[in-house]
Amino acid sequence: MHGKSPVARFYDLLADDYHLVYADWEASMARQGEALDAVIRSELGVERASILDCSCGIGTQTIALGRCGHRVTGTDISVAAVARAVIEAERRDVPLVAAAADMRQLPFADKQFDVVVSADNSLPHLLDARDVRKALSEMRRVLRHRGLLMVSTRPYEELLEARPTSTPPQLSTAPEGGRTITFQLWKWHDDGEHYDLEHFQLVPDGPTWSVRVRRATYWALTQRQLAEFAMEAGFTDPEWKTSEDTGFFQPVLTARAC
Questions:
Q1: Number of domains in the chain
Q2: Digits of tens for pLDDT over the chain (258 positions)?
Q3: Among positive and negative, which fits the CA dihedral 188, 213, 60, 249?
Q4: Based on the domain organization, do 81 and 166 belong to the same domain?
Q5: Range of 126's domain?
Q6: Methyltransferase domain location, by residue (predicted)?
Q7: CATH number for the domain including 204?
Q8: CA dist 257 to 142, 235, 253, Å?
Protein backbone atom coordinates (compact mmCIF):
# COMPACT_ATOMS: atom_id res chain seq x y z
CA MET A 1 0.00 0.00 0.00
CA HIS A 2 1.44 3.38 -1.00
CA GLY A 3 0.55 6.45 1.03
CA LYS A 4 -2.33 6.84 3.40
CA SER A 5 -5.63 5.46 2.12
CA PRO A 6 -8.88 7.46 2.22
CA VAL A 7 -10.21 5.02 4.83
CA ALA A 8 -7.17 5.54 7.05
CA ARG A 9 -7.56 9.32 6.75
CA PHE A 10 -11.27 9.10 7.57
CA TYR A 11 -10.66 7.22 10.82
CA ASP A 12 -7.55 9.19 11.73
CA LEU A 13 -9.71 12.33 11.66
CA LEU A 14 -12.48 10.64 13.61
CA ALA A 15 -10.37 8.87 16.25
CA ASP A 16 -10.59 11.54 18.96
CA ASP A 17 -14.37 11.87 18.61
CA TYR A 18 -15.49 8.37 17.65
CA HIS A 19 -16.99 7.63 21.09
CA LEU A 20 -19.46 10.46 20.44
CA VAL A 21 -21.11 8.32 17.77
CA TYR A 22 -22.77 6.60 20.74
CA ALA A 23 -25.16 8.19 23.20
CA ASP A 24 -23.26 6.30 25.93
CA TRP A 25 -20.04 4.65 24.73
CA GLU A 26 -19.38 2.71 27.94
CA ALA A 27 -22.86 1.21 27.99
CA SER A 28 -22.70 0.38 24.30
CA MET A 29 -19.31 -1.31 24.72
CA ALA A 30 -20.74 -3.51 27.46
CA ARG A 31 -23.79 -4.50 25.38
CA GLN A 32 -21.72 -5.26 22.30
CA GLY A 33 -19.18 -7.28 24.23
CA GLU A 34 -21.82 -9.37 25.94
CA ALA A 35 -23.58 -10.07 22.62
CA LEU A 36 -20.42 -11.08 20.76
CA ASP A 37 -19.15 -13.09 23.71
CA ALA A 38 -22.40 -15.07 23.77
CA VAL A 39 -21.99 -15.94 20.07
CA ILE A 40 -18.39 -17.06 20.62
CA ARG A 41 -19.31 -19.26 23.58
CA SER A 42 -22.22 -20.77 21.68
CA GLU A 43 -20.20 -21.44 18.51
CA LEU A 44 -16.91 -22.61 20.03
CA GLY A 45 -17.97 -23.88 23.44
CA VAL A 46 -15.11 -22.07 25.18
CA GLU A 47 -15.00 -19.39 27.84
CA ARG A 48 -11.69 -17.85 26.75
CA ALA A 49 -10.63 -17.49 23.13
CA SER A 50 -7.74 -15.87 21.30
CA ILE A 51 -9.41 -13.09 19.28
CA LEU A 52 -8.17 -10.80 16.52
CA ASP A 53 -10.31 -7.75 15.86
CA CYS A 54 -8.91 -6.74 12.46
CA SER A 55 -10.85 -3.45 12.30
CA CYS A 56 -10.64 -2.52 15.96
CA GLY A 57 -11.00 1.25 15.65
CA ILE A 58 -10.73 2.89 19.05
CA GLY A 59 -11.44 -0.44 20.74
CA THR A 60 -15.21 -0.62 21.12
CA GLN A 61 -15.57 -4.37 20.52
CA THR A 62 -11.96 -5.31 21.31
CA ILE A 63 -11.95 -3.85 24.81
CA ALA A 64 -15.41 -5.22 25.53
CA LEU A 65 -14.33 -8.74 24.55
CA GLY A 66 -11.20 -8.37 26.67
CA ARG A 67 -13.42 -7.48 29.62
CA CYS A 68 -15.29 -10.73 28.99
CA GLY A 69 -12.05 -12.64 29.61
CA HIS A 70 -10.81 -13.23 26.08
CA ARG A 71 -7.22 -12.69 24.89
CA VAL A 72 -7.55 -9.81 22.46
CA THR A 73 -5.41 -8.44 19.65
CA GLY A 74 -6.50 -5.39 17.69
CA THR A 75 -5.45 -4.07 14.30
CA ASP A 76 -6.79 -1.21 12.22
CA ILE A 77 -5.74 0.71 9.13
CA SER A 78 -5.90 3.95 11.17
CA VAL A 79 -2.79 4.63 13.25
CA ALA A 80 -4.65 7.23 15.32
CA ALA A 81 -7.50 4.83 16.09
CA VAL A 82 -5.13 2.06 17.19
CA ALA A 83 -3.21 4.49 19.39
CA ARG A 84 -6.43 5.50 21.10
CA ALA A 85 -7.53 1.86 21.48
CA VAL A 86 -4.31 1.15 23.38
CA ILE A 87 -4.90 4.11 25.69
CA GLU A 88 -8.54 3.18 26.32
CA ALA A 89 -7.60 -0.45 27.04
CA GLU A 90 -4.93 0.64 29.53
CA ARG A 91 -7.43 2.89 31.30
CA ARG A 92 -9.69 -0.14 31.78
CA ASP A 93 -6.91 -2.60 32.70
CA VAL A 94 -7.57 -4.71 29.61
CA PRO A 95 -4.45 -6.39 28.17
CA LEU A 96 -4.35 -5.55 24.46
CA VAL A 97 -1.82 -6.35 21.75
CA ALA A 98 -2.32 -3.81 18.97
CA ALA A 99 -0.83 -2.74 15.64
CA ALA A 100 -1.71 -0.59 12.65
CA ALA A 101 -2.43 -2.93 9.73
CA ASP A 102 -4.60 -3.30 6.65
CA MET A 103 -7.01 -6.25 6.90
CA ARG A 104 -5.88 -7.25 3.40
CA GLN A 105 -2.35 -7.85 4.71
CA LEU A 106 -2.43 -8.99 8.33
CA PRO A 107 0.95 -9.11 10.11
CA PHE A 108 0.53 -12.55 11.69
CA ALA A 109 1.64 -16.08 10.98
CA ASP A 110 -0.88 -18.69 9.87
CA LYS A 111 -3.37 -20.21 12.32
CA GLN A 112 -2.82 -17.81 15.23
CA PHE A 113 -6.37 -17.11 16.43
CA ASP A 114 -9.55 -18.87 17.50
CA VAL A 115 -11.75 -15.97 16.35
CA VAL A 116 -11.43 -13.10 13.88
CA VAL A 117 -13.87 -10.20 14.27
CA SER A 118 -14.58 -7.36 11.87
CA ALA A 119 -17.54 -5.45 13.27
CA ASP A 120 -19.48 -2.24 12.77
CA ASN A 121 -19.65 -2.20 8.96
CA SER A 122 -15.89 -2.10 8.46
CA LEU A 123 -15.57 -4.61 5.61
CA PRO A 124 -17.80 -2.56 3.23
CA HIS A 125 -15.06 0.09 3.11
CA LEU A 126 -13.52 -2.31 0.57
CA LEU A 127 -15.10 -1.28 -2.70
CA ASP A 128 -14.62 -4.24 -5.02
CA ALA A 129 -14.77 -8.03 -5.00
CA ARG A 130 -11.02 -8.48 -5.28
CA ASP A 131 -10.30 -6.56 -2.07
CA VAL A 132 -13.13 -8.22 -0.14
CA ARG A 133 -11.86 -11.67 -1.15
CA LYS A 134 -8.32 -10.68 -0.23
CA ALA A 135 -9.37 -9.50 3.26
CA LEU A 136 -11.47 -12.58 3.93
CA SER A 137 -8.63 -14.84 2.72
CA GLU A 138 -6.30 -13.13 5.20
CA MET A 139 -8.82 -13.62 8.00
CA ARG A 140 -9.08 -17.31 7.14
CA ARG A 141 -5.29 -17.65 6.96
CA VAL A 142 -4.74 -16.44 10.52
CA LEU A 143 -7.55 -18.58 11.96
CA ARG A 144 -6.94 -22.02 13.39
CA HIS A 145 -8.77 -24.99 11.87
CA ARG A 146 -12.50 -24.55 12.51
CA GLY A 147 -11.82 -21.09 13.88
CA LEU A 148 -14.71 -18.62 13.91
CA LEU A 149 -15.21 -15.64 11.61
CA MET A 150 -17.57 -12.89 12.81
CA VAL A 151 -18.40 -9.97 10.50
CA SER A 152 -21.12 -7.41 11.10
CA THR A 153 -22.48 -5.00 8.50
CA ARG A 154 -25.41 -2.71 8.07
CA PRO A 155 -28.61 -4.49 6.94
CA TYR A 156 -27.98 -3.71 3.30
CA GLU A 157 -30.91 -5.63 1.82
CA GLU A 158 -33.24 -3.23 3.62
CA LEU A 159 -31.10 -0.19 2.86
CA LEU A 160 -30.87 -0.97 -0.84
CA GLU A 161 -34.65 -1.00 -1.00
CA ALA A 162 -35.06 2.27 0.90
CA ARG A 163 -31.95 4.11 -0.41
CA PRO A 164 -31.79 6.46 2.58
CA THR A 165 -30.06 9.79 2.10
CA SER A 166 -29.44 10.55 5.77
CA THR A 167 -29.46 9.12 9.29
CA PRO A 168 -31.37 10.56 12.25
CA PRO A 169 -29.37 12.91 14.49
CA GLN A 170 -27.76 11.27 17.53
CA LEU A 171 -27.33 13.36 20.68
CA SER A 172 -24.48 12.29 22.94
CA THR A 173 -22.97 13.74 26.08
CA ALA A 174 -19.25 13.32 26.73
CA PRO A 175 -18.16 12.12 30.21
CA GLU A 176 -16.47 15.47 30.75
CA GLY A 177 -19.69 17.25 29.82
CA GLY A 178 -20.81 18.93 26.64
CA ARG A 179 -23.29 17.75 24.04
CA THR A 180 -22.53 16.61 20.51
CA ILE A 181 -24.95 16.00 17.64
CA THR A 182 -23.93 13.39 15.06
CA PHE A 183 -25.63 12.51 11.77
CA GLN A 184 -24.75 11.26 8.30
CA LEU A 185 -25.64 12.22 4.73
CA TRP A 186 -25.52 9.50 2.06
CA LYS A 187 -25.19 9.98 -1.69
CA TRP A 188 -25.80 6.83 -3.73
CA HIS A 189 -23.69 6.18 -6.83
CA ASP A 190 -25.26 5.49 -10.21
CA ASP A 191 -24.30 1.79 -9.93
CA GLY A 192 -26.85 1.47 -7.12
CA GLU A 193 -24.40 -0.39 -4.86
CA HIS A 194 -21.91 2.20 -3.58
CA TYR A 195 -22.54 5.37 -1.62
CA ASP A 196 -20.56 8.34 -0.33
CA LEU A 197 -21.04 9.13 3.32
CA GLU A 198 -20.54 12.49 5.00
CA HIS A 199 -20.22 12.16 8.77
CA PHE A 200 -21.22 15.38 10.55
CA GLN A 201 -20.52 16.27 14.17
CA LEU A 202 -21.85 19.48 15.67
CA VAL A 203 -19.93 20.51 18.77
CA PRO A 204 -20.79 23.50 21.02
CA ASP A 205 -18.36 26.36 20.55
CA GLY A 206 -19.28 29.18 22.91
CA PRO A 207 -22.60 30.68 21.82
CA THR A 208 -22.56 28.79 18.50
CA TRP A 209 -21.60 25.36 17.09
CA SER A 210 -18.51 24.05 15.31
CA VAL A 211 -19.10 21.57 12.49
CA ARG A 212 -16.73 18.69 11.75
CA VAL A 213 -17.20 16.71 8.53
CA ARG A 214 -15.46 13.47 7.51
CA ARG A 215 -16.09 11.62 4.26
CA ALA A 216 -15.90 7.97 3.22
CA THR A 217 -17.26 5.60 0.56
CA TYR A 218 -18.92 2.23 1.16
CA TRP A 219 -20.07 -0.78 -0.84
CA ALA A 220 -23.56 -1.91 0.16
CA LEU A 221 -22.69 -5.61 0.24
CA THR A 222 -25.73 -7.85 0.61
CA GLN A 223 -25.76 -10.79 2.97
CA ARG A 224 -25.84 -13.21 0.05
CA GLN A 225 -22.84 -11.55 -1.59
CA LEU A 226 -20.78 -11.54 1.59
CA ALA A 227 -21.60 -15.16 2.40
CA GLU A 228 -20.52 -16.16 -1.11
CA PHE A 229 -17.27 -14.20 -0.81
CA ALA A 230 -16.58 -15.94 2.52
CA MET A 231 -17.01 -19.38 0.93
CA GLU A 232 -14.77 -18.38 -1.98
CA ALA A 233 -12.13 -17.38 0.58
CA GLY A 234 -12.22 -20.85 2.15
CA PHE A 235 -14.84 -20.56 4.88
CA THR A 236 -17.64 -23.05 5.44
CA ASP A 237 -21.04 -22.94 7.12
CA PRO A 238 -21.78 -19.23 6.62
CA GLU A 239 -24.80 -18.12 8.63
CA TRP A 240 -26.32 -14.70 9.18
CA LYS A 241 -27.61 -14.04 12.67
CA THR A 242 -30.11 -11.24 13.17
CA SER A 243 -29.93 -8.58 15.85
CA GLU A 244 -32.89 -10.31 17.48
CA ASP A 245 -30.84 -13.53 17.60
CA THR A 246 -27.73 -12.02 19.15
CA GLY A 247 -28.57 -8.70 20.82
CA PHE A 248 -25.85 -7.08 18.67
CA PHE A 249 -26.87 -3.88 16.90
CA GLN A 250 -26.09 -5.20 13.40
CA PRO A 251 -26.60 -8.54 11.64
CA VAL A 252 -23.59 -10.83 12.19
CA LEU A 253 -22.17 -13.29 9.67
CA THR A 254 -20.51 -16.32 11.24
CA ALA A 255 -18.46 -18.89 9.31
CA ARG A 256 -15.78 -21.47 10.04
CA ALA A 257 -12.23 -21.73 8.71
CA CYS A 258 -11.40 -24.96 6.87
A1: 2
A2: 446 899 999 999 999 999 988 989 999 999 999 999 999 999 999 999 999 999 999 999 999 999 999 999 999 999 999 999 999 999 999 999 999 999 999 999 999 999 999 999 999 999 999 999 999 999 999 999 999 999 999 999 999 999 999 999 999 876 656 789 999 999 999 999 999 999 999 998 889 999 999 999 999 999 999 999 999 999 999 999 999 999 999 999 999 999
A3: negative
A4: no
A5: 6-154+221-257
A6: 51-147
A7: 2.20.25
A8: 9, 5, 13
